[in-house]
Design brief:
With 659 residues, the protein is α+β, with helices and mostly antiparallel strands. The protein folds into three domains: 168 residues, Beta-Lactamase (2-Layer Sandwich), CATH 3.30.450.40; 176 residues, 2-Layer Sandwich (Beta-Lactamase); 174 residues, Heat Shock Protein 90, CATH 3.30.565.10. It is built from twelve helices and 19 strands. The strands form four sheets. The chain has a six-stranded antiparallel beta sheet. Strands 9-8-7-12-11-10 form a six-stranded antiparallel beta sheet. A hairpin with a 5-residue loop joins strand 5 and strand 6. Helix 9 crosses helix 10. The N and C termini lie far apart (84 Å). The relative contact order is 0.06.
């Protein structure tokens, strides 16, 4: 109460001074927010932003001598959680709920609705969180996408009619403060997104824009795009991530469209296929955006029992799955899938962030998917073009080889006839001598005949064998050329056997007992077929050739016998996964050469053309071309090695035709 000695003019001046002082402090506070925004720069920092929010509302409360300080509650979907310093005990409710949802403004203002002044009878749910208070002033903050971010609350023990919270000037200052903080939030969010996208592009460039590597990097970095402002931060370990692309099957009458895993943080190999009608991610493809904008639920619920496929759990039960569509040119092209072992792991901010991320990366993913398709098409096109070219060569070769082979056969027959004639003449002489009674000369003649027949017999056997071998190789060569680019059911064991025979008779023939080929496992049957082509034999031979060279290099320093082991096993996914589409055969070729270091192995797994680590005159293209061929028929190649011990190439080839 003002002393009676003050004149009216003095009272007015004191009030003006107080108001100007208050205004000056408020302006100083707003300027400090601007300075903080500038100091954040272009990188963004959620912890700095959190500190700015807390310091700002504390200073505002101090400036206005608030009975209770301004509190900031972050929206989590069904409730609001208090923004506070870590490990700090507070005397205020840490979680609140409202009886009515807050709607974004229609005028496009940054902070949301200007404010809401409530008395106890207007929201008993909210006031139940603040016992003893009669009036509450609320100011929500919305993002630029009109998503509710947080709610600023200040409470008063006085009734609304006499509360200072009803002062329009105070409410205007409160709204101005929240608007400025909304700008800071928007700036920080944009800076963070920009930095993360830039980091992603840098990794693309480091991997030479390899589609396979880029898909993998995106999956690995998705959790970094999840918001982490205060209570919004994930309260669990980073989720596992899959990027699934919708197959673009040129002939849907043969195979149904599928989802193909291109990038993953799980243990499942890229290229794993999921049937749309037998997967949770497939629900997003089968339904429209209005009916199911996203999926976020516990996938182990009975409702989803027939759809859930356990890929990302790594032995732990998944309790929350968040899946959103990837849309390009208004058509779904895939699904971005996140899974966590924590119940209710994702809040509304995570969902919105993943939706925005899917929209941002959709054109990028489409480019990588098209590059994969182009690579596969190019492989088949090159094979087809080469087949036509070789078919022409084959016709010339067929004609050119026919005459020498016939000549060789004719010469063998002629020489055979001459030898036979000489032998017959010697025998006739022996008979004449026997008739004349001169038996002393018969035995030497018969010895010469026997010796001649013995020596010529072995030579003729070699000649006939050589003729037969050349004829067989000639027929095999011509057969391979004529079916060079034909893809379809391929006899796996017959292909491996033919390759082993070729390796034995060509690569190992001159090495004696230095290198041994050993089949250590074979689960094939006579009816075992895989989706492939005659090119498979050529690429298997190329891999064996690498193994022989690796063992030879090791033999120069270490005389231990070289061993190249082969195993053919059925690659069957666990029953909890998609078995029908992913049954394949694994062909492993392992040598006991020098192997490679972990660093070299990682580089080889990128399948860069020209990369090699042996000292021989190889080109470094064998593994690359084999990998591209295996990929073009829907399979995959894996490399394993321990330096000084072994190097192993594993080919996974599907039984049926992949999309």
């Amino acid at each position: 109460m003002m002393p009676a000695s003050y004149s009216p003019w003095e009272k007015v001046l004191r009030d003006l001074h107080r108001e100007f002082t208050l205004l000056e402090r408020e302006l100083s506070l707003l300027q400090d927010i601007d300075k903080s925004i500038l100091s954040m720069g272009t990188h963004g920092n959620s912890e700095l932003l959190k500190g700015l929010f807390l310091d700002t509302i504390d200073r505002f409360s101090e400036i206005h001598h608030a009975e209770q300080p301004v509190l900031c509650y972050v929206y989590l979907g069904s409730s609001f959680r208090l923004l506070k310093k870590q490990d700090t005990e507070v005397n205020y409710p840490e979680e609140i709920t409202l009886s009515k949802p807050l709607r974004p403004p229609l005028d496009g203002s940054e902070s949301g609705v200007p404010f809401a002044l409530l008395s106890r009878d207007e929201d008993e749910t909210l006031f139940g969180c603040f016992p003893g208070y009669e009036t509450i002033l609320l100011c929500p903050m919305f993002s630029e996408l009109k998503l509710l971010i947080s709610l600023f609350v200040i409470a008063d023990t006085k009734a609304k009619e006499i509360s200072r919270l009803t002062d329009p000037a105070f409410a205007s200052s409160f709204v101005a403060l929240i608007s400025q903080l909304a700008i800071a939030y928007k700036h920080d969010n944009r800076a963070l997104q920009h930095r993360k996208i830039q980091e992603l592009w840098n990794t693309f460039l480091e991997s030479n824009l390899s589609p396979t590597q880029c898909f993998k990097e995106i999956a690995k970095r998705v959790p970094r795009f999840l918001p982490d402002f205060g209570p919004i931060r994930l309260q669990s370990p980073d989720p596992e991530v899959q990027i699934l692309m919708l197959s673009n099957d040129p002939d849907p009458t043969i195979t149904a469209p599928e989802l193909v895993i291109r990038g993953t943080t799980g243990a499942e190999p890229p290229g794993t296929r999921l049937a749309i009608h037998r997967s949770i991610c497939g629900l997003l493809i089968e339904s429209n955006e209005l009916k199911l904008p996203f999926f976020c639920d516990d996938p182990t619920k009975p409702d989803y029992k027939a759809l859930y496929r356990e890929y990302l759990g790594k032995g732990k039960p998944i309790r929350t799955e968040l899946a959103v569509r990837i849309v390009f040119d208004r058509h779904p092209i895939g699904v971005l899938n996140l899974e966590s072992e924590t119940i209710d792991a994702f809040n509304i901010h995570h969902i919105n962030a993943v939706l925005r991320l899917a929209e941002t990366i959709a054109p990028i993913l489409m480019v990588f998917e098209r590059r994969l398709e182009m690579n596969n098409t190019m492989q088949l096109s090159v094979a087809s073009s080469t087949a036509r070219y070789l078919e022409g060569i084959a016709s010339v070769y067929r004609h050119s080889m026919k005459t020498p082979l016939l000549t060789l056969k004719s010469n063998i027959e002629t020489i055979s006839a001459l030898v036979e004639g000489v032998t017959v003449k010697n025998l006739e002489n022996a008979i004449e001598l026997a008739r004349s009674g001169d038996t002393t000369k018969i035995l030497p003649i018969l010895d010469r005949v026997a010796e001649k027949m013995k020596s010529t017999s072995s030579k003729f056997e070699r000649l006939y064998s050589m003729h037969s071998q050349i004829s067989r190789y000639n027929a095999d060569f011509l057969k391979d050329i004529s079916t060079y680019a034909e893809t379809g059911p391929t006899d796996l064991r017959a292909t491996v056997d033919a390759t082993l025979k070729l390796v034995t008779e060509s690569l190992l023939a001159q090495l004696g007992q230095q290198i041994e080929l050993k089949i250590v496992a074979d689960e094939t049957e006579k009816t075992t077929k895989v989706y492939g082509s005659p090119l498979l034999k050529q690429h298997l031979y190329s891999i064996f050739h690498n193994s022989v060279l690796a063992v030879q290099e090791r033999l120069r320093e270490d005389p231990r016998i070289g061993v190249i082991s082969i195993s053919i096993t059925k690659d069957l996914p666990p029953p909890s996964q998609e078995v029908q589409l992913n049954t394949s055969w694994a062909v492993s070729i392992r040598d006991n050469g020098k192997g490679v270091t972990p660093e070299q192995l990682e580089r080889l797994r990128h399948f860069e053309p020209g990369l090699r680590f042996r000292k021989d005159q190889g080109t470094g293209s064998g593994l690359v071309t084999a990998q591209r061929f295996i990929t073009s028929i829907g399979g995959r190649m894996e490399l394993e090695s321990v330096s000084g011990e072994f190097f192993e190439v594993i080919l996974h080839i599907y039984e049926d035709r992949p999309s």
